[in-house]
Amino acid sequence: MGCSLEVYRARIGNWAGRAGCGELRASFPRRDGYLGLTATVSVLLVSLISVLLVIGGLELNPGPTCFVCRRALKSGAECSVCGKWYHNSCERIRDVDIIGDEWSCNRCTRKNVKVLSERVRAFEDENIQLRQENLRLARAVEESRAKLAKTPKPAMSTARKKTEAATAARVETATVTAAREKTETVTAAREETATVTAAREETATVTAAREETATVTAAREETATVTAAREETATVTAAREETAEVTAARESAPFVTRDATTATDPADRQYLVLGDSIVRHIGKHENLTVKCFPGIRTRQLSNVIDNLEKSQPNVIVLHVGTNDIKGRHDLDTKMGEMYDLATTVKKKFPKSHILLSGIIARADVSSNKIRALNDRLLWVARVQKMLFVDPNKWLTYRDLGRDGLHLNRTGAHKLGSLFQQCCEVLRRTPLN
């Protein structure tokens, strides 16, 4: 029963089809002289207006509108009783509700049920009256028979007897026929009553199903809300725990005298950041030197570190692995490469603290995979006795650029501030 807007327009037509120029031209009488010229000019003006309406896009029939939401229809159903149109979603129409090409809306269905109920009541009342009439007639017949039995019968001729017998047979036949017709009427009324009852039960079933569907939908929405709240709570809890760890590290760090590794003068602080293109724009912080190698992988960074000068910065920050996350090897192989890199850095810079940064979440890699790799990097940091920081607890997807991979200005500033704070904590912590 679903009817698209194109089918409706094909049935109804458009403005130009309903008011063509030929019909307008035929409506003017043909006259000679000045009046004929006026009619011709009127026809031309009407034709010009029709062309302008067609160019302006106003010639199309806007089509039917939904009786519930009063919006235009692209697809929907038309009630076969009242002729009104409805969206499938507004009237909650299903395919099983449409029998053949016939479908009626809820309003018409309720009206039909009410009319049928009234007809059933009328049939029942009429049946009662007919029964009472039959009883009255049966009593009258019995009384007539009793009177006839008491009355002496005069002698009748054979022809008269046959006539009376025929008449009695005809009357009895007519009575039986009328009783049969009344019985058939009552049977039809009962069948119609059964149909109405079945319709009522089906309507109640559909209503219960709709209510149950609404309940399930509300439960799903509430579950989604609770899940989002739990995830947000877990994120906040993790951020608080890591903040507490950093604060505890700051408070427990001993105050030592000024030397090469615990300098208090800002000029003696040297923080070196080695990484891929993610750390390109984070260097606008005090004593933070950034060496960016776009596209570099973990193994390649080991070779680069071997060629660096033997300066001894206070803290070395490693941020690498962004270009390895989509490689062919599994996560355990990448963990082994990071372990080898940490060993190389510790041999090259034995007097420097090392800060290992986790992989930042990105749009083209699932968060579960990034979380699994960061868990392996945390294990490497614990075994190598380094500090590990997960930037995802400070950064969000809003801090990513348009490519969904690199950081924007806000994200780069947040990451640089995070590295600066962690370096300050490590600088005051003695080497193991």
TrEMBL record:
PROSITE patterns: ZF_PHD_2
Chain spans, region Disordered: 198-238
Domain PHD-type: 63-111
Organism: Gryllus longicercus
TM region(s), chain numbering: 34-58
Presence of the UniProt keyword Coiled coil in the record: yes
Protein name according to UniProt: PHD-type domain-containing protein
GO molecular function: zinc ion binding
Keywords assigned by UniProt, alphabetized: Coiled coil, Membrane, Metal-binding, Transmembrane, Transmembrane helix, Zinc, Zinc-finger
SMART domains: PHD
Highest taxon, organism lineage: Eukaryota
Keyword DNA-binding: no
Coiled-coil regions, chain positions: 113-140
InterPro entries for this protein: SGNH_hydro (IPR013830), SGNH_hydro_sf (IPR036514), Znf_FYVE_PHD (IPR011011), Znf_PHD (IPR001965), Znf_PHD-finger (IPR019787), Znf_RING/FYVE/PHD (IPR013083)
